[in-house]
UniProtKB/TrEMBL annotation:
Entry annotated with the keyword RNA-binding: no
Name of the protein: D-alanine aminotransferase
Catalytic activity: D-alanine + 2-oxoglutarate = D-glutamate + pyruvate
Transferase listed as a keyword: yes
Highest taxon, organism lineage: Bacteria
One GO cellular component term noted in the UniProt record for this chain: cytosol
PANTHER family: AMINO-ACID AMINOTRANSFERASE (PTHR42743), D-ALANINE AMINOTRANSFERASE (PTHR42743:SF10)
EC numbers, comma separated: 2.6.1.21
């Protein structure tokens, strides 16, 4: 467990939070989480591009170049000796006396951690059970901001029911948006459905890789259109995607079996295709 704060490498037990960091007091910041396979960061360029976009949308000055952030990722891998894990980083607007409006003349804070972890192969093989949860989040879910209370409450509700995930839906439209920390997909009549990338979902890196690289190669077709929970319950297959889950089948939603209750064929081939990309990028 190794970390980095504003230019210094640290061990987590010695790291100190600045009390007036606006990330701490307002959630005024953004984050990214990138998977490390075999000592290499997978799809780091996509994560850094999304980070820049999140910063721009929140009008946080960009003070770290991609080359610098990349170098710190690799320094963390090297110093920690971790070959397979997740690197988390967050950039907050500043440390400044607490007022809601932006402080002048401040420099953002960057903190990073690396932790050992592997994708949950059992979940990928057996599939997971999820619940439906009302999406109570704000209307800029496209920004990967530190404000995660809606996601946290949804995930906790699932956890308390002994389920592995929560699939969120907007009550006003009765349309599914995404998981609590993942994008959600279904397969119906041979087509792959997922919510379009608007302000209501995060444009997942894993989602983008599936849509741009894996799905075209396998010859499947995607419908980027929102659908209701009822529509999802009658799907042949369902799955969630994220950096940590990769492609994980969903075999039960709110007690309803999806398809025949085992991971679907298309879902499995997408996971396989994704793993091949990881293999190509990180193991050669
Ligand atoms: N949607 C939400 C709300 C998330 O928090 C995440 C990841 O943390 C995702 C989707 C998946 O994004 P990615 O594939 O970039 O990890």
């Amino acid at each position: 467990e190794y970390g980095f704060f504003n230019g210094e490498f640290i061990t987590l037990d010695t790291a100190k939070v600045q009390l007036e960091d606006r990330g701490y007091q307002f959630g005024d910041g953004i984050y990214e989480a990138t998977r490390v396979y075999n000592g290499k960061c997978f799809a780091l360029e996509r994560h850094l591009a999304r980070c820049r976009r999140s910063l721009r949308e929140l009008r946080i000055p960009i003070t770290y170049m991609d080359e610098e952030l990349t170098a710190i990722h690799y320094d963390l891998i090297q110093k920690s000796g971790i070959q397979n894990g997740v690197i988390y980083f967050q950039i907050t607007r500043a440390t400044a006396p607490r007022t809601h409006y932006f402080p002048d003349q401040v420099i953002p804070n960057l903190s990073m951690t690396i932790r050992e972890s592997e994708p949950n192969r059992k979940w990928q093989e057996d599939g997971i059970a999820c619940m439906l949860a009302e999406d109570i989040r704000w209307l800029r879910c496209d920004i990967k901001s530190l404000n995660l209370l809606g996601n946290v409450l949804a995930k906790q509700a699932a956890h308390e029911k002994g389920l592995q995930g929560a699939i969120q839906f907007r009550k006003d439209t009765d349309l599914i948006t995404e998981g609590s920390s993942s994008n959600f997909f279904i397969v119906k009549d041979g087509l792959i459905w997922t919510h379009p990338t608007d302000n209501l979902i995060l444009k997942g890196v894993t989602r983008s890789i599936l849509l741009e690289e894996v799905i075209p190669q396998l010859g499947y077709t995607v419908v980027e259109k929102a659908f209701t929970p009822e529509f999802a319950l009658s799907a042949a297959e369902a799955f969630v995607t994220s950096t940590s889950l990769e492609v994980t089948p969903v075999v039960n939603i709110d007690g309803h079996t999806i398809g025949n209750g085992t991971p679907g064929k298309i879902t499995q081939s997408l996971l396989q295709g994704y793993r091949e990309l990881v293999q190509k990028e990180c193991y050669n």
